[in-house]
Amino acid sequence: MIQSQSIAVETTLQKKAKPPQDGLGFGIHFTDHMFILDYSVEQEWHNPRIVPYQPIVLDPAAKVFHYGQTIFEGLKAYKTADGRIRLFRPRDNFARMNRSNDRMSVPELDIDTAITALERLIEVDADWVPTEPGTSLYIRPYVFATQATLGVAPSENYQFIIIMSPVGAYYPEGMNPVKIYVESDYVRAMVGGVGEAKTAGNYAAALKSQQIAKEQGYTQVLWLDGAEHKYIEEVGSMNVFFKIGGKVITPALNGSILAGITRNSVLQLLKHWGISVEERRLSIDEIYEAAEQGLLEEAFGTGTAAVISPIGEVNWGGQKLVIGEGRTGELTNKLYDTLTGIQYGTVEDPFGWTREVGAGKTESVR
Amino acid sequence: MIQSQSIAVETTLQKKAKPPQDGLGFGIHFTDHMFILDYSVEQEWHNPRIVPYQPIVLDPAAKVFHYGQTIFEGLKAYKTADGRIRLFRPRDNFARMNRSNDRMSVPELDIDTAITALERLIEVDADWVPTEPGTSLYIRPYVFATQATLGVAPSENYQFIIIMSPVGAYYPEGMNPVKIYVESDYVRAMVGGVGEAKTAGNYAAALKSQQIAKEQGYTQVLWLDGAEHKYIEEVGSMNVFFKIGGKVITPALNGSILAGITRNSVLQLLKHWGISVEERRLSIDEIYEAAEQGLLEEAFGTGTAAVISPIGEVNWGGQKLVIGEGRTGELTNKLYDTLTGIQYGTVEDPFGWTREVGAGKTESVR
Predict the structure, then answer these.
(1) Per its UniProt entry, what is the enzyme's top EC class, as one word (chains A, B) (predicted)?
(2) Which residues of A touch B165 (CB under 8 A)?
(3) Which of A108, A281, B275, B301 could form an S-S bond across to B270 if both were Cys, CB 3.0 to 4.6 Å?
(4) Which domains can be identified in chain B, with CATH numbers?
């Protein structure tokens, strides 16, 4: 593990002007600094450093351009009303990054090193954590292959980088249910593939379908399984939940869908509240049948960016299904309020999910 | 279309020392120059230029690092005995790149522009085309997303780059059959996915399985289909052919396998020779049954790097199958000799596959 004091810090001589907090958007503005860690077969992970936000310089043969060995994570830091900065389940993000690394033949990262680096970076750029309601600091850790040879083989060199972006409220005008297009032809991932790894190729594979959905007036794509085009996988880059006859059902982690941290938080919250939840195979037929029987009550996506995203309409091959009269459901609202409340520190956190930056240097709060 | 004279050429002030031709390897050494073309939504493809081989400088938020929008091609230039430089089916490579681009939501490239750029680059670096038997100049065109925002959407900016690498003889000690491991758990791609696009994510997805095969003493992985783990797809990053009872069979292009240019050349050659060929679904069971009946005669992979790669042994879940007593088959040898003969100009090219660099500036030889 790399200690905080062994991270070299070079602060910028020219701080950027901060963008106005009412027009931050998502992933457009970046803070003044970034964290970099190098990997070579001989030295393993080495040279941890915080430097001014600056371009990455790579040989044109660097493997990331050709064979796509790259993995990312996404998490957020929140400012509480009394000015403290809190992270939400950061260990889970870096643990998942290591599972992705394993699938993509990328060397493991020490989780404590990653968290130490992240906290140090946040301290350096603490004035970048926005304060307006609903805003947060989006954190993007990622790793990519840098070896400059064209043989198809795992890279011998990597960089692990953390960049950070102040982001706006996801629902500046209140939470509105989205319309979802069920994709019956294109497939995002399949069992045996890399669908559960947070790797670039999964996102590139989804773009065309997303464009088609958008042209037809839909916000997101609902993916079905690759083998039978029958079972529900994810929605856009979120996990998906359906409330049917009082029970909440979400697709089980089968290897082809992402093990979302918000997904896991929702499952824990629901169990905590005594609501019946099922993680299992869920066919698109079952959704339509439940709707016919008047049992389909709510639907929502979960992810770091939106936290909870209510679904008001589904279109499967032209059959439109309006859910909850197109309005956000009661449970969907309660989950959103509770999760964001825990994140911003206005609601008690019985799960130990939040971690205050700077406060946990010696302990390992999960 | 961009004309040759509109390509800005900045030649290097310091030419690199050329590596010895008996130890070139593959994709390790690069020539003195590279070609770059930029894309923006406003200007489309613009600013064609040849510059000294140099690092690529990218914002840390560039989409290629995060969402993997990147596509590549691979082709070769060969020096004939009388000193001419020839390309093998370059239009087919750039046509395929455009099909990959379409699948990955990358803007189309003008094929004539790409060929003009490539020929101009080869002229500038003509002294890099190696001359020893079996050596060639490997050409790597690629395109990647450069927009520096983290929203999951097609990039608004790209770079198209060509780099070139002198490569050694693939079989310096003669062609030897390889041993192949049939992958029954991990999957490379599936119908509805991006398997037929030459995109980075497909290669990243294959690495783990390749490592497992290598640890067990196998050179390549034979991939089965994602839905049933039953039908043959590709071998490593090559297409695959089996000769059974006098007929040659290769998996049909179903959307999940690459439409190899060497694959297509082999099909055309076989038809030209009057040999019966079938492109269809081919199960791994059928291979084992044919072997039991004494009908499995030869097997080989096809690709730009090796051209033809004989397969001497297959291992499917522990059942080992030796093909052709582990020796290179007669037809396999004939295909290799003919294809490489056409490429190096020692065998007549009845298909119009070869294109002399500099000779075809106004015509469009396929």
Answers:
(1) transferase
(2) 61, 150
(3) B275
(4) 4-172+349-356 (3.30.470.10), 178-327 (3.20.10.10)
Tokens of A295: 């049992």
Give the ipTM.
Answer: 0.96
Backbone angles phi, psi at B56, to 5 degrees: -90, 135
Is B108 an interface residue toward A (CB < 8 Å)? no
Phi, psi of A99 (to 5 degrees): -70, -40
3-state secondary structure B231-273: EEEEECCEEEEEEECCEEEEECCCCCCCCCHHHHHHHHHHHHC
Q: Is B66 on the interface with A (CB under 8 A)?
A: yes
Q: Which residue among B68, B103, B154 places its CB closest to the CB of A200?
A: B68
pLDDT digits (tens, 9 = 90+) for A176-194: 899 999 999 999 999 999 9
Cross-chain residue pair B65–A64, CB shorter than 8 Å: yes
- H-helix segments, chain B: 63-67, 90-103, 111-124, 200-215, 261-272, 284-292, 330-344
> Distance (Å) from the C-alpha of residue B199 to the closest C-alpha of chain A?
8
A255 to each of A185, B154, B195, how far by Cα in Å? Answer: 20, 26, 18
Phi, psi dihedrals of residue A259, rounded to the nearest 5°: -80, 80
Q: What is the CA radius of gyration of chain B?
A: 21
Contact B105 A208 (CB under 8 A): yes
Q: Express each pLDDT in B271-304 by its tens digit.
A: 999 999 999 999 999 999 999 999 999 999 999 9
Q: Does residue A364 register a pLDDT over 80?
A: no
